[in-house]
Amino acid sequence: MNKSLLLKQYFLTKYGRRFTTREKLLAFHDKKMKNHITFVLKHSTFYKELYKDVLNNHNWKSLPIITKSDMMDSFNELNTVGIKKEKAFQLAFDAEETRDFSPRIGNVSIGLSSGTSGNRGLFLVSSREEAMWAGTVLAKMLPSSIFREHKVAFFLRANSNLYESTESGKISFHYFDLLDSFPKHIERLNQLKPSIIIAPPSMLRMIATWKDKQIISISPEKIISVAEVLEDLDKSYIENIFEQTLHQVYQATEGFLAATCSYGVLHMNEDLISVQKEYLNKEKGIFVPIISDFTRKTQPIIRYRLNDILIERKTACPCGSHFLALERIDGRCDDLFYGENLLTNEETCLFPDFIRKSIMISSNQILEYKVIQREFNLIEIKLKVESDEEAVKDLVLAELQKLWKHYQLVVPQFQFTPYDIVTSDKKLKRIENRMKVKSNDSII
Description:
Blueprint: H1 3-16, H2 22-43, H3 45-50, H4 68-73, H5 75-78, H6 85-98, E1 104-105, E2 108-112, E3 122-126, H7 127-141, E4 150-156, H8 161-164, E5 171-177, H9 182-192, E6 196-199, H10 201-212, E7 222-225, H11 232-242, E8 246-252, E9 255-260, E10 266-268, E11 273-281, E12 286-293, E13 301-305, E14 308-312, E15 325-332, E16 337-340, E17 347-350, H12 352-362, E18 366-375, E19 378-385, H13 389-406, E20 413-418, E21 431-433, E22 442-443
Parallel strand pairs: 4-5, 4-6, 6-7, 7-8, 17-22, 18-21, 19-20
Antiparallel strand pairs: 1-2, 2-3, 8-9, 9-10, 10-15, 11-12, 12-13, 12-14, 14-15, 16-17, 18-19
Helix pairs in contact: 1-7, 10-11, 12-13
């Protein structure tokens, strides 16, 4: 690990880059992207071919859009270090099997996404990019100075050289494998007494339950949610138990995309990436992000359409940052719900946030929930409630029926089944579409 580069990036991120206006930030993006594209065209045959008829990088914002499937299909030609997809996948799968995530190819770390969108993705990060990533993460997420002692408990399905790179001086990183048993986690937490906990919200909720029941005795300075959509239900519970603001990191195969400020508001990391919005509903601020990362050279990400649904914040954040602020990460495009319009018979999409809000306003007795679209006209609902389950079911049913009627959709059959979801290494999605065939004729 290049410690001097890590520290340089830490201080640059924390103190060096201050954009006093949105216009200055966008000018910074233009300069960075033009330089980045010049490099990429020399070293990536994929982008050179893709841009052969549009080589004027002064208009980079209108360059062709790529997706995850494009990146994976052209992995060998896209990356700039000559790594072959088959070799990278083999190393990543071996790491998953052995739980040893340290091997590299040369100076490049290989990571494997969890595959919630249906196909698993590879990411490549050089040792230089690791140091820069670590410096940025530490600057944005540490509760105090990098020179103070911090013990970080990190709960994830898979470890990575990238995550281990955050160790620096007095900062110690402790990986908790989500495949390990709960008793092992409890024992390690009580021994470590971490100052920072990073975990998916489903795991954080379990940790909060252990604290509430006095099974563990820990008082972390900061708690950070990762990997899953953070639901208000979980956020409120975790914040109440730990008596502090729950922070978030939006990290994906495609990079370190967003992090919360001191006020707990999620901001896109526009000192690392440029974000363009493909609106699904402009009035409500719902969009799919198209990102360009001007810091990643090993596996360039330019005009890349993510599969996530984001909701922009309509009011300025009190922290004063000009970075794009989000109300929330709503879920994935794969988990839009579908209904039939009563007037036109068209298939119409409902956003996950609509389902989420209907559930949450129906009753304050709901502890846990999951809503699954099984078929076009069949919605499964799982509830865990404090008391009076049948009354709560009636309230939930009424709110969901009201939602479908409000948008003039044919009301489907709503089926209640027992809440049987347990915390595991699998990402928890409270709003999930499991239909085999989905279309996208109309969005509301």
